[in-house]
Amino acid sequence: MQVLVNNKTASASEIVASALHDNCRGVLVGERTFGKGLIQSVFELRDGSGVVVTIGKYVTPNHMDINGNGIEPDYGSFPAWNDVTQHLSQCNMHGQG
Asked: Does domain 2-89 have CATH number 3.90.226.10?
């Protein structure tokens, strides 16, 4: 599978792209992703105001911190299918492949 990403690929879409990549199911094609990796909750206060609290962060299956970094794709433009299959056949699910 070839997954198209760019600088607007953020948050949950970065998690899906990285999961496909890190689990050797696809290659990423395009530009570095946005890098939105914080999980936040909004709490309403008694006076009607609110506070936003960061409660977690996203990391890839290979434990790379997405926030502020984004994910670098494997290819800048669509590769030949033979290159994709070769890349995935050499992929290591416990590290960058």
From this structure: yes
